[in-house]
Design brief:
By secondary structure, the protein is of the alpha+beta class. It is 15% helix and 34% strand. The chain contains one helix and eleven strands, in the order H-E-E-E-E-E-E-E-E-E-E-E. The strands form three sheets. Strands 1-2-9-6-7 form a five-stranded antiparallel β-sheet, with no helix packed on it. The chain is elongated.
Length: 180
Amino acid sequence: MEKIIKKLFISGTLLVALAVSCTALTSSYAADENKPPKDTTFELTIPEVVTLSKVDGVNIEQASLGTINEDNIVAEVMTNSNYQIQLSAATPDLKLNGDITSSQFIPATANVQAGVNGWGVKNANNIYDAVTTTPKPFYNGVMTGSTPASVNLPVGIGVAPTLPNGTYSTVVTLTVATQP
């Protein structure tokens, strides 16, 4: 019987010592109530994102000689910031059958008139402007969020009655750039 009591006593001492040790460890991690809490800075930078999902060019099947022939360049833009649409062309003049060496052409101009060879795109002020070899702004837009915005850029083409028949064309580059 004496042996049993000693075992219980030894076991009880270990349990008490273990409980004291646990209490001491727990209390060393407690917050010091005399010190103010510390702040930290949290930053997240969202990059500017622009998606140009669709561009439809101008296709006038049969040009009328006595009027300004009109159509639209249509672009779908989705962005998380304000943006600007710029146009340029390596060869701004519309050339007969796309031949850049042809002497027959419709010049890019800001002065589009009926019956006179010339073509241009209406800018943000709704005035015809010439497409040049350097990107030039034609439209300013606001953030679209998750819904694409459909942007129409009106194109006007004047044709003189003396212009030889055929297809006149060029390649126009549409660039979308974000704005602050």
